UniProtKB/TrEMBL annotation, chain A:
The keyword Transferase applies. Its cofactor is pyridoxal 5'-phosphate. InterPro entries: Aminotransferase_I/II_large, Asp_trans, NHTrfase_class1_PyrdxlP-BS, PyrdxlP-dep_Trfase, PyrdxlP-dep_Trfase_major, PyrdxlP-dep_Trfase_small. Coiled coil: none annotated. Homodimer. Its EC number is 2.6.1.1. GO terms for cellular component: mitochondrion. Keywords: Aminotransferase, Pyridoxal phosphate, Transferase. One of its GO terms (biological process) is L-aspartate catabolic process. It catalyses: L-aspartate + 2-oxoglutarate = oxaloacetate + L-glutamate. One of its GO terms (molecular function) is pyridoxal phosphate binding. This is Aspartate aminotransferase.
TrEMBL record, chain B:
One of its GO terms (cellular component) is cytosol. This is Aspartate aminotransferase. It comes from Labeo rohita. The lineage of its organism: Eukaryota, Metazoa, Chordata, Craniata, Vertebrata. GO terms for molecular function: L-aspartate:2-oxoglutarate aminotransferase activity; L-cysteine transaminase activity; pyridoxal phosphate binding. Homodimer.
Amino acid sequence: MALLKSTKILTSVGAQAPVLAVLQLRASSWWTEVQMGPPDPILGVTEAFKRDTNPKKMNLGVGAYRDDQGKPYVLSCVRKAEAQIAAKKLDKEYLPIGGLADFSKACAQLALGPDNEVLKSGRSITVQTISGTGSLRVGGNFVVCHFHIFCFSFEFSRFHNVSRDVYLPKPSWGNHTPIFRDAGMQLKAYSYYDPKTCGFDFKGALDDISKRNLLVFFDMAYQGFASGDTDRDAWAVRYFIEQGHNVLLSQSFAKNMGLYGERVGGFTVVCKDAEEAKRVESQLKILIRPIYSNPPMNGARIASTILTTPELYKEWLVEVKGMADRIIKMREMLVSNLKKEGSTQNWQHVERLIKEFSIYMTKDGRISVAGVTSANVGYLAHAIHAVTK
Amino acid sequence: MSIFGEVPQAAPVAVFKLTADFREDQNPSKVNLGVGAYRTDEGQPWVLPVVRKVEKMIADDHSLNHEYLPILGLPEFRSSASKIALGEDSPAITENRVGAVQCLGGTGALKIGAEFLRRWYNGTDNTKTPVYVSAPTWENHNAVFSNAGFEDIRPYKYWDAGKRGLDLEGFLGDLESAPDHSIFVLHACAHNPTGTDPTQDQWKQIADVMKRKSLFAFFDSAYQGFASGNLDKDAWAVRYFVSQGFELFCAQSFSKNFGLYNERVGNLTVVAEDQDNLNRVLSQMEKIVRITWSNPPSQGARLVAITLNTPELFAEWKDNVKTMADRVLLMRAQLKEKLKALGTPGTWEHITEQIGMFSFTGLNPKQVEYMVKEKHIYLMASGRINMCGLTTKNIDYVAESIHEAVTTVQ
């Protein structure tokens, strides 16, 4: 340790020659050995985009909805809910650790359907979380603490804890891996995307998921946003539960209610019965308390108001369908514009798109279609064709 | 056979259970002296007038939206919040070696600081680095640090139950005997739960030992402005340490001094030796934030930023804070007077000597049980009371009940 300390002092001297006078007063920094962290692969894209001065630049990086003028969109039902809430002049007292009860209930109902047997029997617990990320993180922590499945491993000639393994689809959201890794899990992958068809590799996925007795963890960040229909988008979750899977579920209201920065989400555990749900709830609180004590009110209150006020709920369904429809339309326009350009390709030329055309996306070639507008879709098609022909 | 069949029922968090029990109690004389939130003289929560004003400004400004904040938070919140802690004219700020991370309340700020220290403080694995918390301390300190991976969390002597004051000798002794480079969690002002702060002179002695032994200062500042009514006075210790050349963290909460409890407004202020070190530290904190909550909630931070950066609103806020602090000081003075008038055995000077929301009454667990069960006055088993729970209407009942507890229960 002493040797390390003097090395730190030497490094500091080298780096700060002009400020020697100050150095004499202070010992060297604690942080000399701290490496510069790389920019976030997704959010870093927006930073690069902001620095670019090209008037034709496009940000197809972060997953936030944009209207056809390329502007952020605050839902009308959100504005109405906000006005209703403001008029009530509520206090700002701490929420319980598990969050706003009205919100958690409505959140679960949205995902599972209000008549779901799971909700009627009380055999699930939903806690309010810091949007989708916070939900996944709490879920990862919960599994590591409380999920223990041992299988006999011939390779190791003993019972082997397999419950630290988490299988993510290939590819998956970039933040899944570091979240689960930091929670203490071993990352594994199952086939998902087939580059030959640009579609779902059903056979590959089934081959990789050839085990029995798996714990299913759903990440539902786009309910309503995908097809425009909240029930349709929740079909898989509901089907698995019907088939007897007691699933884990993360929900986010960042996209479908445009509440990104308010951090609105939920984490649900479907249990065997109500008694088990109570035990699980108590443990989730123990996990949450040392991270942030209790969640923020504002967004949850807005979401809850929308979900539980019939006119606002109806309006929300229309607006979320509106957003989904615009995305679907942009997909169609992009394809037809590419055809017009004469393109017949798949494409992996991210670097050139960024450098030559100021079109920003993540390195894996993911574009946020929400960043496409009727005004820029022609430019996008032209650029994609230019780098792939 | 359920996969969760073995999951045990966890014990409820004591302070929240206390409030839950209070709510269920039907007795008309009940008093809640438990959880740390401000109450008016009518026993009601108080949304600061300046907060209502700024909320309306935000609601009426349709150019604002709900887009994601940067990972480290709202820039104008972070910088103005750090200025509150360190002083606007802080040389460290002028020297560009102060940065901050917007976090989910004070808890979130402690969490991010703890996670960073575990990864980067003294080598890249600090799981065995000792972390010292005061005896007693806020009950969540332990959990925050152990949850962040620290395996060796130790108490440092702080509260002298006998003299009902600071055990300075014990404190300094534990500093001396701590391994070099240990981490110390210090309460910036209004110590929770004892309400007992070191004097300026005592802080100087503490800083001397910490400097000499390269101990890391991690300040927890949850009550700035709330303690004495004066922001600068309540920040003296943090600023002194900065002036002595410490690199330190200060976890700030705006839950109490802005009354924004449920919006989770916190700030982790980082003071580093220079800008280069600061930038690398912030870049690593960013990675930790990303896998914890991605980016922080915008409503509360926006509100605080607007208030701190608008002169008239800033003045109004300071006034609101003083209103709260003054009511607490009044209740302290009155409680002490009433206990003295009743002739309650023991000395009660500590009630006015202690500072901030809490008072460590000195009631033992049996006496506390008596207060809760027989008198329907809810306080923590440690004897901690929240002065904000006292009002001109209930203070006589509380004083009489304390008198009964002390004289009839041993």
